[in-house]
Design brief:
Blueprint: E1 5-13, H1 20-29, E2 35-36, E3 49-50, H2 64-67, H3 72-88, E4 91-93, E5 99-101, E6 108-113, H4 119-132, H5 141-145, H6 149-158, E7 164-167, H7 173-187, E8 192-199, H8 204-212, E9 243-251, H9 252-257, E10 264-273, H10 286-299, E11 308-310, H11 317-331, E12 339-341, H12 344-347, H13 352-368, E13 370-371, E14 394-395, E15 400-407, E16 411-419
Parallel strand pairs: 6-7, 6-8, 11-12, 11-15
Antiparallel strand pairs: 1-9, 1-10, 2-3, 4-5, 8-9, 10-16, 13-14, 15-16
Helix pairs in contact: 3-6, 7-13, 10-11
Length: 421
């Protein structure tokens, strides 16, 4: 028997808001978080725009001494987790005056998705190495740059002593982390798991690398808010973003026993690999479509029971057309009735972070009864012929919502949430 898993807390650090409420209001308003890059000098770059997190002050959530030892992606994760744990009412003051997880810390785990690690830390260290030699490299380079350090730091900050994992499946990392966390709670290995995705890779190295792949939008650097336009015939690539989306998962039994407020049920997860190409999805749609089918089956819901699907929707020609095929493959005739949108039109492509706060977009859709829009959808691609909630929010009842993420290497992860009760 699989234990029922519920969500009791959410936290967001994103290009469109540094709290769940700010994030929700931006989704409803169709607000773009994309602008000119401020984190490095873009002279000589074709791409000069990104979805940066704005007005982020780590000390609001992290002690300054600890924060100085964390890369930006780790700071995002700890800050979003602080919000989620507060909402879930899972923190208490320990004897040393610090906040610690309530209950048995050995039954509280972490699974975070991260695709790239601390790129700004790597960049700084390479400059020091090449300019001044190895003895001038920052001594904390390695523990700050490696991808598992977000989970490691989070465990130390709040005293979580259960498993602390990092999932690395490129842009599917956030969704796959959620799925692994779901299994930890279902199996009884953990009563509580902090999970989601985090990413901070708006650096010269990352922008330059993606630019050389011809993957990024470069035609609308003068109008950055118009650059991310999933499913639009005039799209020319994705916009890199950053941020973290974190959920608190609990078994229903554990949440009820402590009187927690349950937001939604985390009902299902599905994954697959395309076994096709290192950067492009299988154009047939079978790979991602299979992950969608697996997720629906795991959740025990029929395709026609789903009202909303948050698409990977990167604003690239190959992704958007292929994902449309995936949705049709999994949902059949219901695909035409399904509300589908890409919140990347507002946030940009935040790699692992997107998997976290795109799941939160689904939860908000269920809780508050709205369908986030796909902004900048002005000239729909004829091959993308579903209802993508163009440009303006729509309202309605959402009982079941799903979110899918696809990663380089052919990784596909899909999660399903249901209204609780």
């Amino acid at each position: 028997m699989k234990r029922k898993v519920v969500v009791t807390g959410m936290g967001v650090i994103s290009p469109i808001g540094n709290s769940v409420e700010e994030f929700k209001q931006s989704l409803i308003a169709g607000k773009s978080g994309i602008g000119k890059i401020t984190q490095f000098d873009t002279t000589g770059f074709d791409v000069t725009i990104a979805g940066e997190v704005k007005d982020f002050e780590p000390s609001l959530w992290i002690e300054k001494k600890e924060g100085r030892k964390m890369a930006r992606f780790t700071q995002f994760a700890v800050a979003a987790a602080a919000q989620a744990l507060k909402q879930a009412d899972l923190l208490e003051n320990a004897e040393d005056g610090r906040q610690r997880i309530k209950g048995d810390p050995h039954k509280a785990g972490i699974v975070l998705g991260n695709g790239i690690g601390g790129f700004e830390i790597i960049t700084e260290a390479f400059h020091k190495l090449f300019d001044n030699g190895p003895k001038r490299m920052p001594p904390l380079t390695v523990p700050m740059m490696i991808g598992n350090e977000a989970a490691g730091n989070l465990s130390m900050v709040y005293g979580l002593k259960g498993p602390a994992y990092t999932q690395v499946t490129a842009c599917a990392s956030g969704a796959d982390a959620l799925g692994q966390a779901l299994d930890l709670v279902r199996s009884g290995r953990c009563d509580v798991v902090i999970t989601g995705g985090t990413e901070a890779c708006i650096t010269a190295f990352a922008i330059g690398g993606f630019q050389m792949l011809k993957a990024l939008s470069s035609k609308r650097c003068d109008t950055p808010e118009k650059a991310s336009r999933p499913f639009d015939v005039d799209r020319d690539g994705f916009v890199l973003g950053e941020g973290a989306g974190i959920l608190v998962l609990e078994s229903e039994e554990h949440a009820k026993a402590r009187g927690a407020s349950i937001i939604v049920e985390f009902a299902g997860y599905g994954a697959s690999a395309d076994a096709y190409h290192i950067t492009s999805p299988d154009p047939s749609g079978e790979g991602g479509g299979t992950a969608m089918k697996f997720a629906l089956e795991d959740a025990g819901v029929k395709p026609e029971e789903v009202q909303y699907y948050n698409a990977h929707g990167t604003s690239t020609e190959i992704n958007d057309r292929t994902e449309t095929k995936m949705i049709k493959y999994a949902f059949g005739d219901h695909a035409k009735k399904l509300k589908v949108s890409s919140t990347k039109s507002m946030t940009g492509h935040c790699v692992a972070g997107g998997g976290g706060f795109e799941a939160i977009a689904c939860i908000l859709a269920i809780r508050d009864g709205f369908f986030p829009p796909t902004i900048n959808l002005e000239n729909p691609d004829p091959d993308c012929d579903l209802d993508y909630v163009p440009n303006k929010v729509q309202y309605g009842t959402v009982n079941v919502a799903a979110s899918g993420n696809l990663g380089f290497g052919g990784h596909n992860g899909v999660v399903v949430f249901k209204k609780y009760g």
